[in-house]
């Protein structure tokens, strides 16, 4: 059999995640995001489809670059209102056994000490099915809302993230030795105090004089997810990430990303297969090709161009409100000179894109490619993406929620399973064990191990 | 009928909450605190017993005053390890319909902007069954662990809490007007931007230039819980709290608390019955008085004196490790001169307590009184407490988890119901509506209203 294809569900505790305007579709239930049962039902669907994990995006702030104010995102519910991503997880986990959860949390707003406890708590409660999507926040509006004068420089944010992660690793890996917890009712000893250590961290941004508040959870360090695409972001990913999310619009762009990420990990002393890489992808699948195309056409009627431009402006920092919808992208590119537009239009350099076309692409599932067709057609396409790029799998956003995920689970996954390209059952164990098959703990060569040793050395 | 008696369950995401040593009891399941199903099962028990809410304590830090180091709490699991209180709530809420959740969160470790979103998210997901137990952290170890040189002064912490709450009120009450959210699929308008406001808060501790990230939740402001017993803490409670937890060891101490708290609320322009007051209380109930006494004797065999002294040292700041267990308390009081010991021994001024006796009192359910006996005996006692003090109800900790709560639900509550002193069914609606019967929103006269008006004024 070829390499197994992996799927993640990409979602957000909000109304308009990656498909601006589609919340207005009659069958779309995104606006039920405030209902815990909505999420519990989604979890059951995803587990039926043997998705690895649900990757829950988050953003603190608002997309106010488009037209320079927050009117458009508020009107169109472009990732606002947005709820805390963590609180839907325990309910989704209670009704599932194997589905894992990649939760986005920024290093910009909370001290790592209570944060590390929060993720340990979750890893305990849901038995090692936790990943942390590490982000350094990117919206100026988020900085202003939390009393920061302006967003720290991009590289500075990654420096802070390094220190933040080191604190977390020390707490997760170094503070409580294996065997510290005895739970011994007969002797009355719960924990052996000689095996619990103050981490004594003095970093450039954070100082911690204390022990971790949680006993070691199944994975200790949650699986580290990362989605940064900048040069500094990719360095950070090569060093820390175990699963990486990219948003490449074409195979040649994706292959470059995949090769660079794996080479980067090896440079950092890790194995190339210590990384699982997912590309953003949108699937519209139906019994037949014709039916799928019809569905796509029907979905397109609900696109919000303004919502798409609002998202694109927030991501890129370019105010697309200054351009006409039918202007060619090369004109935008010349004026704004931004890598976002370049990366997008490079997917098909021969094609002359307009801003409208780009917005319509983005409005169905964001920046990644879209596969539309019968289970056979879509499976053929996904197989080609894997074979030609070396990517491990796909991060699928919904177009219509939860219809997209239901159809993937019920139509596409069985086709992939028939081809021997998709697991019929989950492997046992934690997310890390499921992804890599080498145990619950983070792989050798990862900087978490050095952090553990630093705690030991400080204690001597 | 006499006044209805209210019950809350008092617990913590930890092993040894209020009954040090009892985790070693053969039937005790406290050490299953890392299992989500343990909490979901507890929620079902509490809903069967028509408890108002489960009040989840929390502490960031460790009780290292006893003997001046953290050895004892680690060994005895005295509130360490301790998990994040919030993450057990969504799972407990998914399997219940009416039980509410009072979640402790400190104002000391996180900016109010993401915090306010977290509680709005929870209030949405669990349909208005949320309370926030506001704490200003009290352990030096927590300050050191988060890079603060020393814990801020007690009054300073309350000043910071005032600013923190003002930010939260502005976000919860002022940022999104009623009617802002239209969810209108036909027009494509999710929210009317003209009804969403930047709160523009410039306080002494926090500055917020942004809108709230959440749309208005059922209660907007969660029900405000408070448990501070100091003079400044009680001022704060009189101004902000809707439910107050006290730990009075005797009726005359409790009556003084209750009268002072209600008078304080009235001074602040609120109604005396805008406050629900619960006293900490421990119940050991069985079919007969003899059986209950036997059970108590059996529980006592599992007490950890060292664990109790560790808790008491952490609460009071007195290192009880310096005293002999059989020393009279007046000796400790003379040496340490602390209000904690005075308040305790004032419960029965004629009695000569030793430190051992105090530790044994504390080891079964903490500082509050204990009622032991048949349903009739315990109900008589609780009724007397309510009638003689004006308290509204009791905050019951477990001695053996979850046995204590099961027996209250199955033995005590039916007896109280027979007497017409306890609800047979929950009222419909949010926690605030259930407690006060005057709607989902915070009562007039509460400072949350002034905060909303301040946002309106700033927007003009």
Summary of the model, kept short:
2 copies of one chain form a homodimer. By secondary structure, the first copy, chain A, is α/β, with parallel strands linked by helices. The first copy, chain A, has a single domain (6-61, 82-136, 155-300, 369-459), classed as TIM Barrel, CATH 3.20.20.30.
Strand order of the largest sheet of chain A: 1-2-3-4-9-10-11-13
Residues in β-strands, percent of chain A: 5-15%
State the share of residues found in helices of chain A, binned by percent. 40-55%
User: Largest sheet of chain A, described in full?
Assistant: 8 strands, parallel, barrel
Overall mean pLDDT score of chain A? Answer: 93
CATH architecture label of chain A: Alpha-Beta Barrel
Oligomeric nature of the chains: homodimer
Q: How many individual β-strands of chain A?
A: 13
According to CATH, the fold-level topology of chain A is TIM Barrel
| Outline type of chain A | globular
Radius of gyration of chain A: 22 Å
Q: What is the count of structural domains of chain A?
A: 1
* Count of DSSP H/I helices of chain A: 17
Structural class of chain A: alpha/beta
Q: List segments of chain A where confidence is low: pLDDT < 50 over at least 5 consecutive residues.
A: none
| Pair with the biggest interface | A-B, 79 and 79 residues
**Helix-strand pattern of chain A:** EHEHHEHEHHEEEEEHEHEHHHHHEHEHHH
Distance between the termini of chain A: 51 Å
What would CATH call the homologous superfamily of chain A?
Luciferase-like domain
Indicate the CATH class of chain A: Alpha Beta
Walk me through this protein's architecture.
Two copies of one chain form a homodimer. The first copy, chain A, is an alpha/beta fold and 460 residues long. In chain A, 42% of the residues lie in helices and 14% in strands. Chain A has 17 helices and 13 strands. In chain A, β10 (243-246), α8 (251-267) and β11 form a beta-alpha-beta unit. The N and C termini of chain A lie far apart (51 Å). The model of chain A has no long low-confidence stretch (mean pLDDT 93). At the A-B interface, α1, α2, α3, α4 and α5 of A face α1, α2, α3, α4 and α5 of B.
